[in-house]
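Kindly go through the entry underneath: sequence plus fold tokens. Please state briefly how this chain folds according to its tokens.
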Amino acid sequence: MPIFEYKCAKCGEKFEELVTGCCADVKCPKCGSDEVKKLFSSFGFKSGSTFSSSSGGSCGSCAGGSCGTCSH
């Protein structure tokens, strides 16, 4: 289960969330808003190779959002 970084669009709170499913319902722990944006994380990226993390838009449960249910 991947951990993703998010930022709340309403209050600006940055937080991490353990995502258990493809399209988990993530809410801000400070204000409860569901208007959150997944942040780009440099962790998992290695210069000069093909290895990269799934935080660049995929939900982590599928390859590149190919499960068809992700809205990322």
Remarks:
- The mean pLDDT is 73.
- The CA atoms of residues 62 and 68 lie 9 Å apart.
- The longest strand covers residues 3-8.
